[in-house]
Design brief:
Elements: H1 6-37, H2 40-52, H3 62-82
Amino acid sequence: MAANTPINDDLSLRLRTIVSNAYAFVKGRETTQSFSALTFEDLAQAQIDRLSGKGTATRPNVIARIKGIEDQLLSFANQIKQTDPGAFLKPDSNQDVNTPVTPTK
């Protein structure tokens, strides 16, 4: 009997199908168990840790990052307020980079 007979091809295909089904069953059970082990409390705690948990200088938590951005914005806004108005570019109708200054009453 030749090595590539239809009977051998059929047996090979059936064997691959059975092994594939067994592997899918085992991996499916693992996935189901990992989902069932995860609770709402676990998810809530993970979110709390991400927002306000321990951070580092290179990887701060979300609240520390927001605070840093706020501090930078406020500092820069104060620098702009203290800048002499003459230091800014004058409005130029050929370049729309500046908003026209309207006098306040």
